[in-house]
Design brief:
This protein has an eight-stranded mixed β-sheet with strand order 6-7-8-3-9-10-12-11, sandwiched between helices. The relative contact order is 0.14. The chain has twelve helices and twelve strands. The mean pLDDT is about 90. By secondary structure, the chain is of the alpha/beta class. The longest helix is centred in the middle third of the chain and has 18 residues. Strand 9 and strand 10 form a beta hairpin. The two termini are about 35 Å apart.
């Protein structure tokens, strides 16, 4: 297995108290495989990814437990200089806001070539040539002419392609894409997702795709992990999630997707709000919003039940959810 996250726990200490952002997350992704991590804002998706990458702000963040195994090595036991060597060459991250992630006063060519001059010891000329190759690879038109341009001179979709080029520059084994299609129109979203899928196949790399949009990952992901209040509440192969969800939260997310056959009807929304991470409800964190909640849900935290081959659900009533 390329990456294994085991019982990861992350908290943030603030003036108002301790926010438990990640509460025992377990997931794994292999070479050539795409794992989609889904959930509402505040569910812990991005914090988990930052912990994996080693870019979590500490303080106020603090990893309080768990393991992050990359090619069998626990990254949490590495010194910072050793961890830095893993970033870029071993794993890389694509951030959701390309404009704020790119340096506005450096040309895209300088930012891309820096990957090769710093990590590979290339000359500036050779690094620039590789930057053009990368821009061609992610299908940016007239790359040779545009390599000297600045981020603001590119459209949102082109900037996201530049971010993808930077992430794959050193051909890492794993790429984490944190909502890479946010604020892009539907056509550009599809192009970006197709590009990521193509590069994953070409390089046989693992891909973790973080998103809140189930519609984006339907044709790309191999398996899905659904997060709520810092925990994974369901994991399954992608087609099984869409056919029959085994957790009420996943069922609610699927029902919230706009559909052509429901034109004119009111769009379904999960009632209530995500919990305050400083005051997570006792029992199942989803119980205040769950239409199936019963007394046991308000007092006991459900484990991840094995509900099928390579499939788990953190719901005491997963059978009823599957049958419903």
């Amino acid at each position: 297995m390329l990456l294994e996250v085991r019982d990861l726990q992350v908290e943030f200490r603030t003036r108002d108290g301790v926010a438990k952002a990640v509460n025992g997350v377990d997931y794994a992704v292999g070479a050539g495989e795409t794992l989609a991590v889904l959930g509402e804002s505040g569910s812990g998706k991005s914090v988990t990814a930052q912990a994996v990458m080693g870019i979590l702000d500490m303080p106020p963040g603090r990893i309080t437990g768990g393991e992050i195994l990359f090619k069998g090595q626990d990254l949490l036991k590495l010194k910072e200089d050793e961890r830095r060597k893993v970033r870029g060459s071993g794993m890389a991250m694509i951030f959701q806001d390309a404009l704020s992630s790119l340096n506005p006063v450096l040309s895209v060519g300088d930012q891309l070539s820096e990957m090769f001059t710093v990590h590979r010891g290339m000359s500036r000329k050779d690094g620039r040539a590789r930057a053009v190759e990368l821009m061609d690879r992610v299908r940016i038109p007239a790359a040779k002419e545009r390599v000297g341009q600045y981020p603001h001179q590119f459209s949102g979709g082109m900037r996201q392609r530049i971010m993808i080029a930077m992430a794959m520059a050193l051909e890492p084994s794993l790429i984490i894409a944190d909502e890479p299609t946010t604020a892009l129109d539907v056509t550009v979203q599809a192009q970006v997702m197709d590009l990521l899928a193509e590069l994953r196949r070409e390089l046989d790399m693992g891909l973790i795709l973080i998103t809140h949009d189930l519609g984006v990952v339907a044709d790309v992901a191999d398996k899905i992990a659904v997060m709520y209040a810092g925990r994974i509440v369901e994991q399954a192969p992608v087609h099984e999630i869409y056919q029959k969800p085994a957790h009420p939260y996943t069922k609610g997310l699927l029902a919230s997707i706009p559909r052509l056959d429901q034109k004119g009807r009111e769009l379904y929304a999960i009632k209530g709000l995500p919990p305050n991470l400083m005051h997570i409800p006792p029992g199942c964190a989803f119980n205040p919003r769950c239409p199936m909640a019963q007394d046991i849900c308000r007092t006991e935290v459900p484990p991840l039940f094995e509900v099928g081959a390579d499939r788990q659900s953190a719901c005491f009533f997963w059978k009823e959810t599957l049958d419903g």
